[in-house]
Write a structure and sequence with these properties.
179 residues; alpha+beta; elongated
């Protein structure tokens, strides 16, 4: 096919095309800018006024408390913190509870536990009191040896009166533990 257009005419057409494309992109961006400005300006104004409103409410709320109410609130928080500290100090440590449960789970089938009590003696020692029924003397002896062989449990107090019966022995013993 023939090329009927001259080089100069081609250049003019290409530059005209580039100019029109640039102009259309510019118009699109200008339209986009105005559209975003028109849409976002009310939102910005609404957010700014809401922020100002919230700050004034916050300031009035802060100023509404008297120093007497602050002192009462502080006393309530202090008494609650003291109560929580007492409750926290009276519960057994995780490690000693874990070791006791490990011993109980590994105990023989001749032992049936009825009560496990915990008493904290000091910040570093506590006593577990274990009560239950043993099917015979041998199972009670094995159970007490399992507990005393564990290094976390120190002083096992197993009264001789627990061995008075031969079968269905009701037992109760104390074991000290370090926390």
């Amino acid at each position: 096919m023939f090329n009927v257009l001259t080089k100069d005419l081609k250049k003019n057409i290409e530059s005209d095309y580039k100019n029109r494309r640039f102009f259309m992109i510019f118009l699109f961006l200008l339209f986009l800018f105005f559209f975003i400005t028109i849409v976002l300006t009310p939102s910005f104004v609404a957010i700014w006024s809401e922020k100002k409103y919230v700050l004034t409410i916050n300031d009035s709320f802060r100023n509404s408390f008297s120093s007497k109410e602050d002192e009462e609130t502080k006393e309530i928080f202090d008494s609650t913190n003291n109560l929580l500290a007492y409750i926290n100090s009276s519960k057994p440590s995780f490690y000693s509870t874990f070791m006791l449960s490990k011993v109980i789970l590994s105990s023989n089938t001749g032992i049936k536990m009825t009560d496990i009590l915990y008493q904290r003696l000091s910040s570093s020692t506590a006593i577990f009191t274990i009560k239950g029924v043993a099917s015979n003397r041998d199972s009670l002896i094995m159970f007490s040896k399992e507990i005393s062989s564990n290094p976390i449990f120190k002083d096992l107090n197993l009264p001789i009166s627990n061995f008075a019966k031969d079968k269905n022995i009701e037992f109760s013993f104390d074991v000290k533990t370090s926390i």
